Amino acid sequence: MKILVTGGAGYIGSVTSKALEQAGHQPILLDSLIKGRREFIRDRVFYEGDIADRGLLSRIVHDHPDIESTIHMAARIVVPESVQQPYEYYRDNVAKSLELFDQLVKLDKPRVVFSSTASLYAMSETFEVDESSPLAPTSPYAKTKRCMEMALEDMSHGTDLRAVILRYFNPIGSDPDVESGIYDKEPSHVIGQLVLAAKGVKDHFTITGTDHPTRDGTGIRDYIHVWDLARAHVAAVERFDEVLADLDATSTIINLGTGSGVTVRELLSAFEAVYGAQVRTLEAPPRPGDAVGAYAKVDKARDVLGWKSELTLEEGIASTLAWGRKRREILGFE
After folding, report:
1. Cα-based torsion angle of the residue sequence 142, 90, 229, 289 in order, rounded to the nearest 10 degrees
2. How confident is the model at residue 80, as a pLDDT?
3. Which of 193, 221, 242, 252 is most buried, by CB atoms within 10 Å?
4. What is the DSSP string of 7-61?
5. Residue 25 and residue 230: Cα distance in Å, rounded?
6. Angle at 169 between CA 168 and CA 170, to 5 degrees
7. pTM of this prediction?
8. What angle do CA 256, 60, 28 make, to 5 degrees?
9. Strands, E, within 87-227: which ranges?
10. Tell me: the pLDDT tens digits for 262-315?
11. Quick check: 185 pLDDT over 90?
């Protein structure tokens, strides 16, 4: 199958493109390269442009009339930035996605696999959440993702559009060949911050929030290896029609995680064990928009996608460190 991947030159988009190829499919990449990296495109079919450019979308479908589905990953994703720049987040994540969704329907390409986020969930006493758990997005970023979920749900009722919405937990690591990974010079992701502190690029690693109602006071997350996440997208496009038919639904939401919660202190301990040295840390209050966190109940992914995570937290950390060593060779900086 040919699969249109918006944001295909990004971190998760490039890894997912590799997983699609290994499964015998052809990713067709669409990326503005405002954030994505040209180095991640490699020899794939690529269109540089905006997801809201209806003319470009028409040209892509004209060139590739056999596109079966779209994996929509293109988005702004930095929580603190979204607090400071809410307009830009709603414009790029919501308004432009609406143009994309509507044009896909008009082009008779109605299957959409959407990258959403677990940061939508309200805090649970057990910290485990399933797809029906209460929602309470705390940042503009998370709110834009919920807006897009609602748009897909409503459009799936009123038009031919159909949607499989994947709520990601926290991706870490690189692809198996260590050819793509987190590319920001100073990543906002916790693992990226740990790497910078371990290498001495930063003086310390900041634990933001130490009074949360978790077992050690720090935030809790479900860290999923990005390669496992990519494999889930392959399952979603391969079983798209079957999933919705079995559920008798026009759209559905599926959690993607490991099913285990890890606190920031536990992550730090695991990182130090894999890295082989201690990391200097300081404590600070939570950042604006930060959530206490949650981990996934993953029964639905297993039951409807036939998927489950296979790689461990330690393997994800090792993969992240391997990418850090190779990043200069591919991107020109560490």
Report:
1. -30
2. 87
3. 221
4. TTTSHHHHHHHHHHHHTT-EEEEEE-SSSS-GGGTTTSEEEES-TT-HHHHHHHH
5. 13
6. 115
7. 0.94
8. 40
9. 111-117, 128-129, 162-168, 170-172, 205-208, 220-221, 223-225
10. 999 999 999 999 999 999 999 999 877 777 889 999 999 999 999 999 999 999
11. no
The pLDDT confidence band at residue 334, using thresholds 50, 70 and 90, is low
CA distance 328 to 27: 26
Active-site residue set: 141
Domains of the chain plus CATH, in order, are 2-173+222-256 (3.40.50.720)
Query: What is the C-alpha to C-alpha distance for residues 93 and 320, in angstroms, rounded to an integer?
Result: 27
Q: Are 90 and 142 in contact (CB under 8 A)?
A: no
Nearest to 109 by CA among 145, 146, 65: 65
Task: Express as a percent the part of the chain with pLDDT over 70.
Answer: 99
* Rounded Cα distance, 145 and 151, in Å: 10
